[in-house]
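User: Could you go from structure to sequence for me? I need the amino acid at each position, not a summary. Structure tokens:
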């Protein structure tokens, strides 16, 4: 029943936007982009934070007059030989319609390393402000944060991984030594085309959206691809993807693996898009 309702709603919205495109194409494009970039879930309330985040220290940053939230778990203090590890920082970047609490299971594996861990709530997610989300906007938030903390390792799930690739391509951050991508999309054009197909939008709106992406992000849609950016990356990478991922197809992970010259590729089976798995997380720890 829910699938039928979702189908009816999406096709009704698409029909409305298609009709609107013949009356006011600019307005139809704006409404389509608003739908495309507005997450429906993933927000959090301060008074009801998940326990995982309650144990962190909170720090708020700002980009383009919008505040975004971060959560910090300081590195454990130990013997002198571990002092350097305490200073190292791992940055966690969640995906679409999620928030920093998605790292609950991975945190159990990361904390024993003794490194400082920072997780971010992306724009319009968690406790961060805003209503619009995109990988380039997310990348700008990452840039604000890395300027202060200079993490050596950065881990991204789903669109968080795409935001990392966009960030590395734009800023060429030399302080980041290792990157972990978990179920990350590469081709923005595929994401856009899937959205157009979902709503059955006409070519008038599709063309307008693609022109708008170029104006907004300064990248042609055919070149807006993480695996193309990765051709110039020097960081060591661990790329993981599940062959049964129905949200981001495994071909996307394989594209990253083919072009990222210092990459290790792990393809799992049966973990879906979330890819929560103790064995996989231990491989990530070994890589770090």
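Assistant: Here is the amino acid at each position, in order:
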């Amino acid at each position: 029943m829910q699938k039928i309702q979702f189908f009816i709603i999406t096709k009704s919205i698409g029909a409305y936007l298609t009709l609107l495109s013949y009356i006011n194409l600019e307005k139809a494009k704006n409404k389509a982009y608003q739908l495309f970039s507005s997450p429906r879930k993933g927000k959090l309330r301060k008074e009801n934070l998940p326990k995982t985040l309650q144990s962190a220290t909170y720090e708020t940053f700002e980009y383009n007059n919008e505040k975004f939230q971060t959560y910090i778990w300081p590195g454990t203090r130990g013997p002198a030989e571990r002092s350097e590890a305490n200073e190292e920082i791992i940055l966690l970047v969640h995906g679409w319609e999620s928030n920093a609490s998605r790292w609950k299971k991975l945190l159990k594996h990361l904390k024993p390393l003794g490194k400082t861990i920072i997780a971010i709530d992306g724009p319009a997610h968690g406790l961060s402000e805003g209503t619009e989300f995109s990988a380039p906007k997310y990348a700008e938030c990452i840039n604000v944060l890395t300027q202060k903390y200079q993490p050596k390792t950065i881990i991204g799930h789903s669109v968080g991984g795409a935001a990392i690739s966009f960030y590395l391509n734009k800023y060429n951050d030399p302080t980041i030594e290792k990157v972990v991508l978990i179920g990350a999309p590469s081709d923005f054009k595929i994401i856009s085309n899937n959205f157009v197909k979902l709503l059955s939008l006409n070519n008038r709106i599709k063309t307008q959206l693609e022109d708008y992406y170029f104006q907004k992000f300064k990248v042609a849609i055919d070149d807006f691809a993480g695996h193309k950016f990765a051709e110039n990356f020097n960081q060591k990478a661990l790329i993981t993807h599940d062959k049964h991922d129905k949200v981001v197809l495994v071909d996307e992970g394989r594209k990253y693996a083919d072009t990222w010259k210092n990459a290790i590729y792990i393809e799992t089976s049966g973990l879906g898009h979330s890819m929560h798995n103790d064995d996989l997380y231990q491989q990530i720890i070994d890589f770090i």
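One structural detail worth keeping in mind: Residues 59 and 120 are 10 Å apart (CA to CA).
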